[in-house]
Amino acid sequence: MSKPTIFISHITEEKEIANSIKEFLEKRFLKTINVFASSHEESLKLGDDWISTIKKSMNDCKLIVVLCSPLSITRPWINFEAGAGWIRNIPVIPLCHSGLTPGKLPVPINSFQGGILNNESDISKVFKRISDIIGIDVPDSTDKDFFSAIESFETDIKNTALSKDTVFIHNLLFRQIELLKYSIFASTLDYKELESVDLRGNGLKNHKFTFNDTFNLFNASLLMIFSQKKVFDVYHQTVHELSENIKFVLTYSRIEIAPKLRELLNVFLFSAIKVDDWYDGVSMQDKQTNNGLREMVIKMIKEEPLPATRKFSNIINHFINYHESLEYFQSWVIEYESEINNLLENKNKG
Fold it and tell me: pLDDT tens digit string along 303-345?
């Protein structure tokens, strides 16, 4: 008489977890069950027709355990195997790990009652379900070594996801970060000085400027993509475009973000309004048809005693806000690049 089969649905990247569960179940159930995990050498031998072997194991199985992580639920094969069990009225148990919880499972897997792989209570329920299916007493499900191994696997998976997602975040935000750095330099340097600036180096960290330097904000952009815009317009637009990309990163639940990086991105979102504090006032001055009035504003910026101080109902206040926002985002970019570069360096060392 053949032994009942428990089918473990998993992705290749998580084969260590699947193999660990297979060995754990077979050991605790004293070999009264056959646990099929396609990545295990005993389940799928060299030379086997793997599609036929998997199909036969699914036809013979009494229970399907689906290993669900933020990565695996994006793969169609997992949904296919769970769906095949549902069609054949085979019990399906999603076991979540590596940060995913049953409440975050997508359709249709969320229609099955799931649990947490690294939760002893949930594993004991799996043992009870298997025991009911094959008609034996429930074996002891406590095993410190097993749960310690699962925790170690989860850490490795999370670190791998974190490394990949850090690269994704860096690439997604790179263009706007470079434009933000350009905006800070272009607001405080004249055309000749700007030509010698290296945006990829550490120039921003060493860049010193005062309120008197910000008159350059009225200069036309030297960037081809913004050739018809003034520097202050490029600055304002860049901050809001960067804010939208950061919002996407923070709200997309499948992206792993290092804690400090997440904090920096959140801070940026709440700070983006700083460019709105001055935009209308500065834009209005730029649109003056009387060039003499704008030249008067530029002269006022150049000659304002330092530190610049706000004055009641005075247009200089808009430019003080502008200067303060430049200082703020200069500091933010320096901190962001330091953190993202540290994360990328650690990835390369790993």
Answer: 999 999 998 878 899 999 999 999 999 999 999 999 999 988 8
Evaluate whether 190 touches 218 at the Cβ level (below 8 Å).
no
| DSSP code, position 230 | B
CA-based max dimension of the chain: 98
CA distance 89 to 60: 12
CATH architecture of 5-142: 3-Layer(aba) Sandwich (3.40)
Span 278-287, pLDDT tens digits: 999 999 888 8
Cβ contacts of 49 within 8 Å, gap of 6 or more: none
The pair of three-digit structure tokens given for residue 185, joined into one six-digit string: 């330099």
Give residue limits of the domains in the chain: 5-142, 160-349
Contacts of 295 (CB under 8 A, 6+ apart): none
Residue 11, both tokens:
């992705």
- Cα separation, 333 vs 177, whole angstroms: 7
Cα–chain center distance at 302: 43
CB burial of residue 169 (10 Å; 0-12, 13-18, 19+): buried
d(CA 250, CA 262): 7
Is the model's pTM score more than 0.70? no
| CB contact at 8 A, 240 and 272 | yes
Specify burial of residue 270 (Cβ count, 10 A radius: 0-12, 13-18, 19+).
Answer: exposed
Average pLDDT, rounded, for the chain: 86
